[in-house]
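Section: protein folds

Sequence with per-residue tokens
===
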Amino acid sequence: MEIKYKIVFSRRRSISITVSPDEGVVVRAPYRASHKTIDKFVNEKAGWIKKQTESFSSLTRINKDKKYTDEELHLFMGREYTLKIFQSSQASVYLRNNAIEVSTDGTEGKVKILLERWYMTEAAKIITVKMNEIISRYRDYMFSPSDLVVRKLKSRWGSCTSKGKVTISSELVKLDERFTEYVIIHELCHLIYHNHGKEFYKLLGELFPEYKSVRKNLRKYITK
């Protein structure tokens, strides 16, 4: 089995391998490591690498091969909607029945820009409302994030800094709202336990008992 991989040298003591659907196989090695040593290490891990790579075939890339043309299907809140493009002097995006209607006098590139702006606007509204609803629902836990940021994240669905700033991926608005709820609760739990230790998962289980199954299903999606 021939394995193609990228090497990243740094001031580290050991060799490690990561496998992702976006970057492929990446080997991180100390400066002193020879290519022969690295190649041997990779071949020893061939079985594990193959298993990880094969698992990516079941992933759903929610933005894959989008051309932003008429009749194309796009996700919103877990449902597929047909993109309808209309020529108009006024730019707009509306959700009507089973379609996302985009009006523009421009090219396909402008359709993409308008649609991405619409997704971001909707995500900011939906995620903010959901965040406030969850904080109110669990008021006894006194969750108080210092800030909420909604933006497009490349490789994760959410994050929480040690200073309490919670960031949620706008891409969640394309999926079922149950995933948004899970990610928000997950990050709010980090306000109390800023790690993934036993106490963190105990708290997460109290607030979101089905987190394991929802997390498993969310891992089937990637944004690219």
